[in-house]
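Database export, one record per block. Field names are fixed; values are copied verbatim from the stored entry.
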Amino acid sequence: MKTFAFATLAALAVAGGAYRLAGGGAALNPVALAADEGAAGPSTEGMKLVFEDTFDGTELDLAKWYPGPKPDGGQWGGAHFVGANEVGFAKVYIVKDGMLTLRAHHDPAYKDPEKWGRTWYSGQVSSAFPNKRISAAIRTGYIETRAKFPKNKGSWPGFWMISADTGTPGAKDPGGTEADVFEFYGDAPGKFSSNVIDWPGASGRKPAGQQLVWTETGADLTAGFHTYGARLTQKEMIVYFDHKEVKRLTLPRPDTTGPFIVLLDNAIHTDSGVDVPPSGYADAVFDYVRVWSD
């Protein structure tokens, strides 16, 4: 379960706004969406491209991504998420041929740092850092990735966002919203779930609940790449698959929802067992990540 200490994001909880990495780097150029996306596709007209990683280098860009646990230091799921200074980092975060591979490794003799007894270690990256520096966060706009998933039962890659709530200023943990563009399960290769959850944290408020929807794609999502996107409005997350709208979810607390940060992961889900591939590893591959702000 992706519980989160939202106090880490409290510094970002300013209604609206897009944030860029302090110190800059090269200016971002507008990216035109493909001409054949059709009328049902997302539009970024009038938006500003505030974050882009096309993984054209040879290693993970640590100025753009914080690898390992969530920015609050929390681990979750059936695999330990390896940090930048841990043994195994280069085996988990592989940047090659314009792609980021998050490789989940199985090792029966693995010494789980959290002492949870797990035998998997894998990768997760976030656009927020423990020191409250960020590379991108938006309240309204559009985010997109192109990805290919592992096929084995137990694989659980995700493309998701989290936001701190602004309704309880001064709370040690104000809670917030989790918005999952996709969560994929390796034993269901033709579909993915999208999810919005209100986490109350230590705010004392009653949680607004959860929305969970499934998209049946008619395709084997492990056999090739597909695009996954989400349009954030003031009140909704609109999910796109291959540039076609597929689902709409209502944000649980739109008036007090702060900016969202972006995360990618290749988690392991152990509830119904895990099949270990003959190679001993399972790859979630990402072609790019782009973030636009209104």
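Remark 1: Residues 12-27, 34-39 have pLDDT under 50 and may be disordered.
Remark 2: The chain has one domain: 15-293.
End of record.
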